[in-house]
UniProtKB/TrEMBL annotation:
A single GO molecular function term of this UniProt record: methyltransferase activity
Pfam families membership: SpoU_methylase
Protein keywords: Methyltransferase, Transferase
Single Gene Ontology BP annotation: methylation
Species name: Streptomyces polychromogenes
InterPro entries attached to this UniProt entry: Alpha/beta_knot_MTases (IPR029028), rRNA_Methyltransferase (IPR051259), SpoU_MeTrfase (IPR001537), tRNA_m1G_MTases_N (IPR029026)
Boundaries of every tRNA/rRNA methyltransferase SpoU type domain copy: 104-233
Protein name per the record: TrmH family RNA methyltransferase
Lineage, top ranks: Bacteria, Bacillati, Actinomycetota, Actinomycetes, Kitasatosporales
Top-level taxon of the source organism: Bacteria
Length: 241
């Protein structure tokens, strides 16, 4: 418990809540400092059955401990870990690198932590270059990492100001935009999505090179943020075969 408290107090350490977050973090090169489980043998069995590629690492790292004394809520898989957050300089360099093989997802002032985590998970699955947020929400908040199943380590995730955005044409999703089905989204695009309530901010709308709309039945108000991102990334094309 002392070691957990010391690690958790570091600014560069994030919580991996549950086996899937731990699994993905290990797969994509996270520096995992400490893994605690109520029943270590059960976690080792999970690794053997679901993720044999990280089984050895899980078996080496996991220690017995009372998660109820460490966390306000224990994940159903009975395991939690602490890992080092990737350095921001390397992440920003990856975002700025050109030519870009896949778009960047830009979330303009998102409000829901779970939605942001779901977007990170989508971006990782589609092979997007990264997920960038604007506004005061921390994209590395523990609830975002939980919703993203640890896949923050499979892509670049950061919070940037408007003037810090990487180069590339901005395609902003907006009901008044051109139908996405008539467009080809380039690999170097920044795909911008507005907040769940207010949509694209005026300053980002002014910065946009293209306004894009998703097909939607009349009188339906909107799509969920993660659904909109999924539809747009699918239209872009996804990972190469």
């Amino acid at each position: 418990m002392r070691e957990w408290a010391e690690c958790a107090g570091r600014d560069d350490v994030v919580l991996l809540d549950g086996f899937h977050a731990l699994k993905h973090a290990l797969r994509f090169g996270a520096e995992v400092l400490l893994v605690v489980a109520e029943e270590p043998e059960g976690v080792r069995a999970l690794a053997a059955g679901l993720a044999p590629d990280v089984e050895e690492a899980v078996a080496r790292l996991v220690r017995p401990g009372s998660l109820k004394e460490l966390l306000p809520r224990v994940h159903p898989t009975g395991v939690a870990a602490l890992a080092v957050r990737p350095g921001r300089d390397a992440g920003r360099a990856a975002l700025a690198r050109t030519p870009r093989p896949a778009p960047i997802v830009l979330l303009d002032n998102p409000r829901n932590l779970g939605n942001v985590g779901a977007v990170v998970r989508l971006a990782a699955g589609f092979g997007a270059t990264g997920v960038v947020t604007r506004g005061d929400l921390d994209p590395w908040h523990p609830n975002v990492v939980r919703a993203g199943a640890g896949l923050h380590y499979a892509t670049t995730v950061d919070r940037l100001e408007l003037e810090e955005l990487p180069p590339g044409p901005v395609y902003a999703l907006d009901p008044e935009g051109e139908d996405i089905r008539a467009l080809t989204l380039p690999d170097d695009a920044l795909l911008a999505f507005g907040s769940e309530r207010h949509g694209i901010s005026p300053e980002l709308r002014a910065r946009a090179d293209h306004l894009v709309s998703l097909p939607m039945r009349p009188q339906v108000s909107s799509y969920n943020l993660a659904t909109s991102v999924a539809m747009t990334l699918f239209h872009w094309g996804g990972p190469r075969p």
